[in-house]
Structure formats: C-alpha cells, structure tokens
Specification:
about 190 residues, Alpha/beta knot, six-stranded parallel β-sheet, 6 helices, binds S-adenosylmethionine
Length: about 190
C-alpha cells in the first residue's frame, strides 16, 4: 500500500460558495495528506483555496498526466478497493455540489475524456467530503460494504421547518458525519 497518495479536488463549480468551502475544508481535514486543488483559474478562487492546499490552474488530467491516478465517478463500473492504493499516486474527486437527482456531471466534466482508471463508492450520491471520508476509510483497508452511509439526512430548523439533504453521509457511532459548519449555515439561510 502506498503511504502517500495525493488527494486532488478538481474545482468544477462556478463560484467558491460558503457551502463548497465547508466541504473542501472538511475534505482536507479528513485526508490529512497532501491535497491539491486543480482547475483553479481565477485569482479570487486561488486566494480562497491557498490556505487549504496546493493550487493548480490546469486540470488534473494535464497536471498529473504522467502519474498513476484514479477518478472517483458514481458511474464507474468498478468499486474502489484497498488494493487500488498499491502504487496509486493520485485520487481525484470532483469539486461539484450535488443536486437532488445526480446529473452525471462527474462524467461530463471530469472522467469522460480521461485516460485514468475510474472507481465508484457505491450507489448513493455522496457529498465531496463524504466521498473523501469513504475514500480514506478504503485507503485504511475497509471494504465499501463495511461503511454505513445515510440515504439522506433531515436538518430540523424548528417545529415546522426542516431541510432534507438528499446525499450520503457516513454513519459513525449511529450518527451521520455532517460537514462541520453546515447545520449553522443552513439555519442562517
Ligand atoms: C456531490 S458529488 C457530485 C456528483 C454529481 N452529482 C454527478 O452527478 O456526478 C461530488 C464528487 O464526489 C465523488 N462522489 C460522490 N459520490 C460518489 C460515488 N457514489 N461514487 C464515486 N464518486 C462519488 C465524485 O468524485 C463527485 O464528483
């Protein structure tokens, strides 16, 4: 097993929103190793992301063309396995926020024209940070089947209002691992 696989997050959203930043910050914290943000084309986004990791203007497919890479794509045919990390230089996650119904944006924006191997993390659409959490667990030797994931979570605001997040979050000790700061953010909205 390779000791140091680099986490690459390919930034593919137009804006660096507060929600996206919460997920990016959590992803970096979970991974702990080297993290690179690719496709960071403007100065404002670069300034926002520099405190979190390395920045590259070009896409991962170009920057890491000579490296051994895997792209995480929900539409991949094969599941991610611990053995995939043997000699793996780079694991690539899409910096894409989810919609209620997955729209295949990872394939369209990241993997379709790539020569890299593709892997999925199960049938449920995970958030960026949940995908990084599950990836880290597989990197540490867990099988995907052993990782419990929510189908959705409900954030209760008061006796009448709530927000459904239709995404997978890992469950640890019977509690979903929700992006730190996300509940506060949603309460303010
Ligand atoms: C919120 S998802 C965006 C997915 C997007 N809705 C789509 O249709 O492709 C953010 C990123 O996490 C990773 N991801 C999320 N769920 C995944 C899964 N089940 N299998 C593989 N990768 C996943 C992918 O890299 C994806 O680009």
């Amino acid at each position: 097993m390779k000791k140091h696989t680099t986490l690459v997050i390919e930034h593919l959203e137009q804006a660096l929103s507060e929600w996206l930043m919460l997920e990016y910050r959590h992803s970096v914290k979970i991974w702990k190793g080297e993290t690179v943000f690719t496709n960071v084309v403007d100065k404002k986004t670069a300034d926002g992301l520099k405190p979190l990791g390395k920045i590259e203007k070009q896409k991962a497919n170009t920057v890491f063309s000579e490296k051994n890479c895997i792209i995480l794509d929900p539409q991949a045919k094969k599941p991610l396995k611990p053995a995939d990390f043997a000699n793996l230089d780079v694991i690539i996650v899409g910096g894409i926020l989810g919609y209620e119904k997955p729209q295949g944006r990872t394939k369209e924006l990241l993997s379709e024209k790539s020569k890299f191997e593709l892997r999925h993390l199960g049938k449920i659409q995970l958030t960026i940070d949940s995908a990084v959490f599950v990836t880290k667990a597989v990197f540490l030797g867990l099988d995907l089947r052993d990782i419990e994931i929510t189908k959705e979570i409900e954030i209760i605001h008061d006796s009448v209002h709530s927000t459904i997040l239709p995404f997978g979050y890992p469950i640890i000790d019977d509690k979903p691992v929700i992006t730190p700061g996300l509940v506060d953010y949603l309460q303010r909205k």
